[in-house]
Amino acid sequence: MKRPALAVAATVLAAGTLLAGCGSTRSSDSPGSDSVTGSGSAARSGSAAGAAAGSPDAAQAAQQEYEQQYAQAVADHDRAFPSVARTCAGKPTAQPSPVDTPSSGPQPENPKYAENHAYLRTAPLNPAAQCRGEAHAARIAAEAAAQPPTGPEQAKALLTRLGYPDATVDQGGDGVHFTFSVPQLGPCLTGVLSDPPHIEVHGPYLEGGCALPKGGH
To answer: What is the CA radius of gyration of the chain?
Structure first.
């Protein structure tokens, strides 16, 4: 499944932060290193490249690029799904931070339970993303209730017609299962096109993607 274009800028921001935290880079990996003048010059050049990448100007440029790509993604989404855009106009976009709150009650018998199940965690959603996901889920549920798909082919056709051509579908014992990321922006929608449909809105799994990871520890 394709990642939104704005994820590239977010990666640049993260890379800049890591470089700033490291303080120096290996001369052999630095784009500014000079292999002819010797290791001392290469190290100085590599350090300068690392400092430039982690500088406030570089971070600001990455932030501006991210904001521009995010704004473009929002515009593309809203043109494709105007009813969802109207429903969620004005919702806050500030991203909540995941908070792990240790329980003060009885702990699981296995002390590594939380660690072993960390692969099931999903990224938090801000109010705008939550609203957007619920609005998309409502569109799908209404269409599926009016004409329930009888198999994966019918489900794929329905989801494609509604604007979700990248949805993954498969047959389950309780109906047709599907999952996809809302085009351009997310979040993830996962559900069963049964009668009635059941659809969950969630962030991507921390290990990546919208599909439930099959692994664990």
So the answer is: 22
Max CA pair span of the chain: 73
- Are the C-beta atoms of residues 123 and 201 closer than 8 Å to each other? no
Note the pTM of the prediction, 2 decimals: 0.66
Ramachandran category for residue 163: left, alpha or beta (phi over 0 → left; psi -120 to 50 → alpha): left
Q: What would the pLDDT profile of 40-82 be if each residue is shown by its tens digit? A: 444 444 454 544 556 888 889 988 998 999 999 999 999 999 9
- Alpha-carbon span 142 to 158, nearest angstrom: 11
The DSSP symbol for 100 reads: -
Over residues 142-166, the mean pLDDT reads 94
Report the C-alpha gap between 23 and 108 in whole angstroms.
Answer: 41
Q: Is the CB of residue 205 less than 8 Å from the CB of residue 186?
A: no
> What integer pLDDT is reported at residue 87 of this predicted model?
96
**For residue 159, how many C-alpha atoms fall within 13 Å in the half-sphere facing its CB?**
28
